[in-house]
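R.M. (postdoc): so does anyone remember the format we settled on? I'll just put the structure tokens first.
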């Protein structure tokens, strides 16, 4: 069993603050990708302190303040930034930081170790189905991807993207609800066990043969 990186007493603050960091960055400095942000986080030295549970970093600074310190350390100049957002936890970008803090705490590893195996693109795919479940359930899925690698893109997702359809558009065209489609795409639900009617409806909407969207 892994020993968490630091006391659970600081975990809630760490998760909310990292969520605020990623959401604030996405909104205020959209020219900086979240991948670039975490590289800067590491270069600044603040990531190492966060990973060890330094109270001054995980709890003593808000996500907005973390953003400012990272920018100052990496760019070497002070800049007047917009104030902190009034409301957080409503966007996918918030969840990315929030769940990364939890995974890092559970695994007691570096953020770079996580992001070398699970990208923000992977988190984007996971968000629809996992942002409403417990942090530990999301952690298990992310840890599986870290241990065994992201599996090949689900065939239904591949065919959907070929037609440039959103999940909602495919749901409307096929009559299969969005939640179920999300579960098929992240393999949380086995499409091979779907009803004949669903497979036919999806294949028709995706302009392919039913067997094309089944998983080998």
């Amino acid at each position: 069993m892994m020993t968490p990186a630091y006391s659970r007493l600081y975990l809630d603050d760490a998760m909310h603050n990292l969520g605020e960091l990623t959401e604030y960055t996405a909104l205020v400095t959209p020219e900086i990708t979240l991948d670039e942000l975490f590289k800067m986080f590491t270069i600044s030295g603040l990531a190492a302190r966060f990973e060890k549970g330094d109270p001054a970093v995980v709890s003593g600074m808000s996500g907005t303040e973390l953003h400012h310190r990272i920018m100052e350390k990496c760019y070497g100049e002070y800049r007047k930034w917009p104030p902190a957002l009034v409301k957080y936890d409503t966007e996918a970008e918030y969840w990315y930081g929030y769940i990364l803090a939890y995974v890092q705490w559970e695994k007691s590893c570096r953020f770079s170790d996580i992001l070398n195996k699970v990208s923000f693109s992977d988190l984007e795919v996971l968000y629809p189905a996992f942002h409403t479940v417990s942090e530990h359930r999301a952690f298990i899925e992310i840890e599986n991807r870290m241990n065994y690698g992201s599996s090949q893109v689900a065939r239904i997702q591949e065919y959907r993207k070929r037609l440039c359809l959103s999940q909602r558009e495919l749901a409307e065209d096929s009559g299969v609800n969005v939640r179920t489609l999300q579960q098929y795409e992240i393999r949380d639900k086995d499409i091979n066990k779907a009803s004949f009617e669903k497979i036919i409806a999806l294949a028709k909407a995706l302009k392919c043969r039913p067997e094309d969207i089944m998983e080998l």
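R.M.: ...and that's the designed sequence above, right after the tokens. Also worth knowing: The radius of gyration is 20 Å. The mean pLDDT is 89.
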